Amino acid sequence: MSHVATSPRFKENARAALADPELQNALKFVEVNFIARRREVADKLPEFDALRDAARDIKNHTLAHLDLYLEAYEQKVTAAGGHVHYAVTADDAKRVVLDICKRLSAKTVTKGKSMIGEEIGLNDHLEANGITPVETDLGEYIIQLRHEIPSHIIAPAVHLTKAQIEADFRRAHDKLPADRNLTEPTSLLAEARGVLREKFLAADVGITGANFLVAETGTSIIVTNEGNGDLTQTLPKAHIVLASIEKLVPTLEDVSQFLRVLARSATGQEMSVYTTLSTGPRRADDPDGPGEYHVVILDNGRSSMLGGEFGDMLRCIRCGACMNHCPVYHAVGGHAYGWVYPGPMGAVLTPSLIGVDQAGQLPNASTFCGRCEEICPVRIPLPRMMRSWREREFERHLSPVTVRSGLAFWAYFAKRPRLYGLATSLAARALALIGRHKGRFGWLPFATGWTRHREFPAPQGATFQAQWKARQRERR
Amino acid sequence: MSAREQIFGSIRRSLGVTGNEAPRRKEAADRMAGHPRGVVPARGQGTPQERLDLFARMVEQAAGSIARVNDPADVPGEVAAFLRKYNLPMAARRGVDPRLASIPWERAGMLEITTGAPDPKMLSSVSHAFAGVAETGTLALTSGADNPTSLNFLPDNHIVVIDAKDVVGDFESVWQRLRETFGEATMPRTVNLITGPSRSADIEQTLILGAHGPRRLHVIVVGAP
Fold first, then answer.
1. Which residue in A75, A352, A378, A330 sits closest to A211, CA to CA?
2. For B134-166, what is each residue's pLDDT tens digit?
3. Quick check: B117 pLDDT over 80?
4. What angle do CA A393, A396, A398 make, to 5 degrees?
5. Phi and psi (nearest 5°) for A163?
6. Chain A residues 129-168 with CB within 8 Å of chain B
7. What is the mean pLDDT of residues A79-95?
8. Which residue, among B98, B106, B130, has the nearest Cα to B194 in the 3D structure?
9. Which value, to the nearest 10 degrees, does the dihedral of the CA atoms of residues B133, B135, B136, B141 take?
10. Is A314 exposed, middle or buried (0-12, 13-18, 19+ CB in 10 A)?
11. What CATH number did the domain enclosing B185 receive?
């Protein structure tokens, strides 16, 4: 992979993110907009929760028969004149794409938004081999100009303010008049549209991701709002689809179940603007469309997740709702997670893909409020899986000494209820006595992590357990 | 061992199967052949007139515009009115769809409707839809010489003509019509499901129409349901 993960430095990343005023300014929209928009459209569809159950069940069924649906899909693609390529690792996938581009003597490649493209680090690889990749999704285009990775899986540039984007456009589009007005988002979009239109018409190869692969018909599906993915795949000589094995669904009927939950969960739309079903290359009497159609199917560790503790993660349809609803994501944004997939889904998936030794801190970035599971369109038990990763991290002795000794100290008391009761009541009394004048502490030994940011209230009366017991006695 | 063999091997190891189990194979094959319907929203299941009304409401909710005419002969006038409203050149490109070819375009006077290869400079295009979906106000268009795909995306203004009888309640009905038209498990190269004009909210989540595709989507419904 060419994105070097900074996930091991999650804590430092998060601290820096919290102190970054521009980032905090950009992030404040996430919580407000996404949550309300999703709520509104979900409430308008009485069948929404039943559709979520159906979507979960279809993914479970598909994953349990994945080899068979993959086989059927491959046959149908081939019958339609397309080519299916398999890639065990990110490097394999990059090699396949590069080979196709080289054979076609491609100079410019346009790209629709693809998280698999980000996962394998495709752009850097193409560039290193003399091919210019051009991201065409507006958000992806902006972060490509900044040499960044996406901070959100459906809104890659959500961490930026329009002033930052304006500065990037002025730097990158230096042939345009310097005195042009770019203060409004509409003028920024119009400029990007103009610049990218030239690229669409000049590109030799178009690369897109896939939201779904349909086994019944050998069809790949992309879901977009801008139309960039369609220009990407319609105009060049060849269309390459990047997809991972879990994108398979059995039938078109199954696809409609997902379409009904995807846009509503992601952007709060009833339906995204463009849902495009592609089957094979240009037909004999077609006036447009790609002459070649290739699908690269990536595994990259997913097949070994099947049926295991983290197998449910393979149901994910990449809507981004979990990060939109996550208080930790709201606070630190996506880059703090240090790799391609942020938020709760990233906290579960990243350790599977790049190793718990690299990404072990991500599952700790959770308050366990449970919102992500509550709104997940395919009902992935994200908190449970984050807990599983924490256990693994502990078992493999990857957590720091202070955490381990603190937990051991607490566990000693927790396993001895009488001793626990005695110790806590002594501590409560002592703290109450010392803090009786101010009623709070500005500093406490072993609790500076708390007192650095806020005061610690002095205990009032007995411990919770003692109060609870007394109350139960009164009831009787 | 090829990448293909490695991936299939790994999947089957994880699932604890060989791939030859007859009941498993039958279950997958039956699902693909039978393509059972799942949950279909009630909102699209009304009478044909209710469906058409819902379709029109949803098109507008998705920021598209909609007009209804009684007869194909009224289409040129409606196209001209749309172009005039936005001060656009009185010209549009279309494919060779016989339903579009039989429209008396000359009736709208100055209107110049041409066929041929899609031209990136063309500001407006006219397509004929394969179907419309009431539940979301979505148009389904199929690729080919009749309605070239690039006409759906290159021009700034996309005008789509649809027969009122082709407005169905749900996506499942579109899949069924595709099977009836193109054959079981056989698809045209591209099926475009289009819901409103192109948009982006990538800059501070401000919604702006006309990102890369058309800025305007105008639907003309012909006839009665």
1. A378
2. 999 999 999 999 999 999 999 999 999 999 999
3. no
4. 60
5. -65, -40
6. 136-139, 142, 155-158, 161-162, 165
7. 98
8. B130
9. -10
10. buried
11. 3.40.50.10420
Residue A324 contacts residue A344 (beta carbons within 8 Å): no
Tokens of B141: 């268009």
In A99-152 the beta strands, taken as DSSP E runs, fall at 108-111, 132-135
pLDDT of residue A313: 98
- The Cα A240–Cα A221 span in angstroms is 12
Amino acid identity at A442: G
- Tokens representing B222 are 């012909």
Of A278, A299, A308, the CB nearest to B189: A278
* Best CA proximity match to B135, nearest among B222, B218, B50, B220: B50
Read off the amino acid at residue A79. A
Locus of tokens 């610049």? A195
How many angstroms separate the CA atoms of A271 and A269, rounded? 5
Per the structure, the complete domain to which residue A420 belongs is given by 412-475
Total structural domains in chain A? 2
User: Quick one: chain A helix, strand, coil %, rounded to 5?
Assistant: 55, 10, 35
Interface pTM, i.e. ipTM: 0.97
DSSP designation for A275: E
> Which helix H or strand E contains A217, and what residues bound it?
none
* Closest-CA distance of chain B to residue A152, Å: 11
Which domain does B74 fall in, by range? 43-222
Q: How far apart are CA B209 and CA B170, in angstroms?
A: 26
Give the count of alpha carbons within 13 A of A303, CB side only. Answer: 26
Q: Is residue A68 assigned to a domain?
A: yes
Q: What is the pLDDT of residues A311-360, one digit of tens each?
A: 999 999 999 999 999 999 999 999 999 999 999 999 999 999 999 999 99
Report yes or no on A138 lying in a domain: yes
Is residue A190 within 8 Å of B212, Cβ to Cβ? Answer: no
| Bridge partners, B208 (sequence order) | B200
Interior angle at CA A288, CA A285 and CA A293, nearest 5 = 95
Q: How far is CA A464 from CA A243, A410, A433, in A?
A: 53, 17, 17
Quick check: is A464 in a domain? yes
CA distance A440 to A436: 8
Residue A252's Cα: distance from chain center in Å? 25
Contact yes or no for B41 and A260 at CB 8 A? yes
Q: Which residue has the tokens 């051991």?
A: A408
Of B8, B138, B208, the CB nearest to A185: B208
Residues in contact with A239: Cβ distance below 8 Å, sequence separation at least 6, in sequence order = A205, A206, A207, A208, A232, A233, A278, A281, A290, A292, A293, A294
B19 to A67: CB separation less than 8 angstroms, yes or no: yes
Rounded Cα gap, residues B180 and B186, in angstroms: 10
Residue in A215, A278, A303 nearest the CB of B190: A278
Going by C-beta distance under 8 Å and a sequence separation of 6 or more, which residues neighbour residue A372? A321, A322, A325, A326, A343, A344, A345, A382, A383
Q: Is residue B109 domain-shared with residue B16, that is, in the same domain? A: no
What tokens does B202 get? 């990538």
| Contact yes or no for B127/B151 (Cβ under 8 A) | yes
The residue whose two tokens read 């919102």 is A371
Same domain, B2 and B56: no
A180 touches A356 (CB < 8 A): no
